[in-house]
Amino acid sequence: IISCTHTPEAKSTGEAVPYALLKKLLPENPTIVEAGAQFGEDTQWMSQLWSRGKIYAFEPSPDSFLELQKVAAQHTNVTAIQLALSNKKGESSF
């Protein structure tokens, strides 16, 4: 299980997602837990990169979740879930 997000900070600094490294580290069929999937941008590329894997994309915001559902409908290996992974804001360890 991994949690993967592409932060706004990374986008603003031009930091790219290390696709090749992630592909080497994970099996061909990983189970991915995406916390805060937002509109599904990362969900989409992960679904394509690991087409034999399974992605559980969590997004509590109703507006963002509507967009995430559209992405999930296009990819059979994505399950969109309209829930937060905690009842409080901030960072937590898994």
Q: Overview of this structure, please?
A:
It is a single chain. The chain has a 3-stranded parallel beta sheet. The longest helix is centred in the last third of the chain and has 13 residues. The protein is 37% helix and 15% strand. By secondary structure, the protein is of the alpha/beta class. The chain is globular and about 35 Å long. Helix 3 links the parallel strand 1 and strand 2.
What summary fits the major beta sheet? 3 strands, parallel
Percent helix range: 25-40%
Beta strands, count:
3
Helical/strand content category = alpha/beta
Total helices: the number is: 4
Order of helices and strands: HHEHEHE
Shape: globular
Radius of gyration (Å)? 13 Å
- How are the strands ordered across the major sheet? 1-2-3
Mean pLDDT: 85
Low-confidence stretches: 1-5, 7-12
Which band does the percent of strand residues land in? 5-15%
First CA to last CA: what distance?
10 Å
